[in-house]
């Protein structure tokens, strides 16, 4: 099922990776389009994980007979602090400090 659903994120990858020219075609301000394009290029690295997360959450919550409603919540509770820490380290901590691109990289990792 994952492989069938994974084809759905491939068009999203193309759109996200080419967001700046698309936004410029839609007459977005050039600076906003540039920053959104940079953010989405780095965030697109996490699309396979986003796709897997969406599929697994729906599989676990749709089938109520399994009684696995709490599994996605527990996963989020474990990953959210890691995401916060990675955002702090990659975005603002002085030795590394990637700045603006640190946030999508941290989200892609977590």
TrEMBL record:
It holds the Pfam family MatE. One of its GO terms (cellular component) is membrane. GO terms for molecular function: antiporter activity; xenobiotic transmembrane transporter activity. PANTHER family: MULTIDRUG RESISTANCE PROTEIN. Belongs to the multi antimicrobial extrusion (MATE) (TC 2.A.66.1) family. This is MATE efflux family protein. It comes from Suillus discolor.
């Amino acid at each position: 099922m994952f492989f069938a659903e994974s084809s759905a994120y491939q068009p999203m990858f193309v759109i996200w990776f080419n967001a700046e020219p698309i936004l410029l075609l839609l007459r977005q301000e050039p600076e906003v389009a540039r920053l959104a394009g940079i953010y989405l290029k780095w965030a697109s690295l996490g699309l396979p994980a986003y796709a897997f997360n969406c599929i697994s959450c729906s599989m676990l919550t749709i089938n109520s007979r399994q009684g696995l409603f709490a599994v996605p919540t527990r996963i989020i509770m474990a990953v959210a602090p890691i995401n916060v820490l990675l955002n702090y380290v990659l975005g603002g901590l002085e030795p590394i400090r990637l700045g603006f691109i640190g946030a999508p990289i941290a989200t892609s990792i977590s």
